[in-house]
Amino acid sequence: MKTILTSANGAPVADDNNSISVGKRGPLTYDNHYLFEKLAHFNRERLPERVVHARGTGAYGSFVLSKDLSDLTLADFLQDVGKKTRVFVRFSTVGGGQDSSDYARDPRGFAVKFYTEQGNFDLVGNNTPVFFLNDPIKFPDFVHSQKKDPRTNLPNPARMFEFWASHPQSLHQSTILMSDRGIPASLRHMHGFGSHTLSFYNAEGERFWVKWHLKTNQGIQTLTDAEAAQRPAHGAQQDLVEAIDSGDFPSWAVKLQIMPDADAKHYGINPFDLTKVWPHSDYPLVEVGQLELNENVNNYFAETEQAAFAPSNLVPGIGVSPDKMLQGRLLAYQDAHRFRVGANVNNIPVNAPKCPVNHYQRDGAFAGTCPYSNGANQDERVNFYPNDQAEAGSPVPDATVMAPPMPVLEDAWIGYHDQSEEDYYSQAGDLYRLMSESQKQQLIGNIVGGLSQATESVQQRMIAQYQRADEDYGLRIKNAL
Ligand code: HEM
Description:
Pfam families: Catalase (PF00199), Catalase-rel (PF06628)
Number of strands: 10
EC number: 1.11.1.6
CATH superfamily of one domain: Catalase core domain
Family: Belongs to the catalase family.
Bound molecules: protoporphyrin IX containing FE
Keywords: Heme, Hydrogen peroxide, Iron, Metal-binding, Oxidoreductase, Peroxidase
Number of helices: 13
GO molecular function, one term: catalase activity
Radius of gyration: 25 Å
């Protein structure tokens, strides 16, 4: 049976090759409403691309729990060994636009949406355990400096180093970025990290600080700048789509570092500083499950492009932490989604929770499209709270999922927090000292490639930072320059 072509109102279209015109050589007429619909829709095909992480690739899969965590968290997807939770993962580069190369020297976004029975939990992380910053007020400045030059619209390494020269907090992450790990060979051959410190809380109201790690089962594979330059721009996306299509499903071991609340007060490293790791010798990794990707999207735009991840998408038993960067992100993502996709972004199937959605939010563009909410736009249900209709099924809060109060550190005060005296050097130096001779040579070469294009003042300030991390690190950069 043939499928009849229709216009958007569902009516059959008689001709999709020729517009209605006044004779053979004449102009078009005003009753070309199908032509107008087609052109008008075409004009509106784009969403604004993500301001960062614009270029991405997504796929569905599952998370299977291998360790019951009910002593630590209320989260139901972390209870009962063997429990399976559907996920959607979107990988991305950070700085480039939608059609930039998959092989930039850039962190990779690794965002996981867990569709749990208590709502969606989004782990919106990267392929690195730390970040360039520890205060969100610097994020727009940082991103501006890493993206294209405002005049030439070209990448400009001098601007990147100019930012880093004034921000020693970036040293740890920029050392990772410039190292041999800086360009993953594929999206399957890299680790993922929640990076921030999140938390768990249990039925007793106890809180634990938690860092999430996703360790690739495919092994780490990376590229040098020269190798990356040979790869086609869309190579990493193609690699992932083809691996999944052929049944070669990539997977990651999901591991946690868990810190009891009391430790946070006296641990030598600020556990809420995103520029720092917790050494595994202090807090060993505990494997809790496996994440596998096994299903490609059917439609890239509908699913991957409209996907909206938010660090504020949390479920009972999982909370945030005093990490200042995380606090900034709690606001930024939903705001971005309302701008990029719209107020009812969570009605789109890829974003919609796979559990009942009951609330008093109503209307807005595209209301009533969520397949999992109570009918279109919550149907005829009462639209204010409190109301007298709880017995008839109007939604009420559930105090049993109340998070314990966030502990306030004893020396807390309110004001601008100057972090300039933090130690941003020891962990960068530790990382440098762990590298083999060939890794050190790659690191120095990658840094000098960009730093040599910066001003002398920037070079001097960067050398001073490298030297504070490790004397040899600084000396080699100085000599290479
Ligand atoms: C204050 C700091 C930050 C701000 C203000 C910020 C802001 C944003 C914004 C506005 C987007 C686009 C969201 C969208 O349009 O859907 C985004 C995407 C993203 N960010 Fe951040 N970001 C910050 C830090 C971080 C950090 C530290 C990480 C990782 C540890 C991270 C990982 C990601 C990822 C993976 C995406 C892409 C999500 C997707 O695939 O749709 N961001 N960020």
